[in-house]
Amino acid sequence: MPYLAKILLYPIKSLDGVEVEQTKVLASGALEYDREFAILDGQGKFVNAKRNDKIHLLRAFYASSFGANRTISLQIPGQKSPQVFHLDEERQTLAAILSDFFGFAVMVEQNSLMGFPDDRNSPGPTVISTATLIEVASWFPGLSIDEIRRRMRANIEIGGVEPFWEDRLFSEEGDLTSFEVGNVRFFGVNPCQRCIVPTRNPDSGAAYPNFQKTFVQKRQATLPSWVASSRFNHFYRLSVNTQLSISQTGKTLQIGDEIEILSSNS
Question: Are the CB atoms for 169 and 127 separated by under 8 Å?
């Protein structure tokens, strides 16, 4: 039986994540505390790894009980020890420190209703399987499963299944695949289009040679025969984007929850 193996939240968009045992669903369909904060420049644009690879050099640590302990421990290159900031009370101080690091003024903004997802039409958690991460890691000598996990930055990881099982969670254009994680009803939308971030070392920002080219070749070669292939206008896609209805608000996802597909493309 497929089951929920990991939950990863990213309290500040583009910074490191935190693994938690459970999380709640917001009315928007997003997970509570995921991408709740974002770093923005003076023009209101995201300061993220897509636009500024220097962000890879920052190390962020959170307590696993992040909801009760709203602090970030931030290690900045060149400093002996991490600095701790309370995200509700010391955001301006954190922004000043980050401004010094980047060399231009930034703000740390909050959206507790939806967070700051890349896809505002599908703000639900992204889904991938552990087996997929293991398979993708095998494509790149020297990369571990944990590094691939950090490059892909999915929220929900499924155990007990074969590689690319999550590709069952989307259908042809215009159709949604419904599935349940515990008692939480999801709609799978489409395979997630990847950006430049997975090509880089999550600690240094250094590019892995020919990462995207290799990924595309391997992804096409291993694409399951039953997959909704029309959703792949290109093969630089991995994990599944989701939506949740407002009726799921306040429900809890917990490690070990069983996963069941209610309608499927296979």
Answer: yes
